[in-house]
Amino acid sequence: MANMKIIKRSKGGVEYLTASLKDKIQTITQAWFWKIKHASGQEDINLKLGRYKKVFGLSKVVEKFSPKSELTLDSEEFQSLINFIRENYQPFKDGAKQYIPVDETFGAESLENLKAIFENPNKEELLNFIIKNDILPEELFFDLQYHERVKAVKEFEEMLNKT
């Protein structure tokens, strides 16, 4: 069964959600979402991250007044962080040394430049350039072959269904 998340409200009326990210013997790392409502009707979501010492006595208490480290990102910084992770986590994890994110920021001009490279009329020169500069990783080459084969099988199935 999934953990139910409960949105809480501070004494000042600010809605928030918390999570423990890591709980070690002497420290705990926590995250908070804060929903800040403005008079204009706009709502901002802020993120607060903190690493806190646990104080031992009769019970374990998290010392929130003197954190080991704490960072609060305002709505703009938080959205930028989300975009940074979305665009860069997977290529970084996969070991890419250089890459161009192909997402909503990959505009028409970038697409036209990419098409112009591959529309080079001298295909042998283009292939030599791609091979020499190791532009296509091996897995992309195999993925392209796979998609071409899937397309050929679909076309063949359609031809069989027509007869």
Could you characterize the architecture of this molecule?
- The protein has 163 residues and is of the alpha+beta class.
- The chain has 2 domains: 8-73, no CATH class; 108-162.
- It is built from 4 helices and 6 strands.
- It has helices at residues 75-93, 108-118, 123-132, 138-162; strands spanning 8-9, 15-23, 27-37, 43-55, 61-63, 69-73.
- Strands 1, 2, 3, 4, 5 and 6 form a 6-stranded antiparallel sheet that branches.
- A hairpin with a 5-residue loop joins β3 (27-37) and β4.
- It starts with 7 loop residues before the first strand and ends with a helix.
- The model has no long low-confidence stretch (mean pLDDT 85).
Percent strand: 25-35%
Q: Any idea how many domains?
A: 2
Radius of gyration: 26 Å
Mean pLDDT: 85
List the secondary-structure elements in sequence, H or E.
EEEEEEHHHH
**Alpha plus pi helix count:** 4
Q: State the distance separating the first and last CA atoms.
A: 51 Å
Structural class: alpha+beta
Helix content: 25-40%
Q: Ranges with pLDDT <50 over ≥5 residues? A: none
Biggest β-sheet description: 6 strands, antiparallel
Q: Tell me, briefly, the overall form.
A: elongated
Number of strands: 6
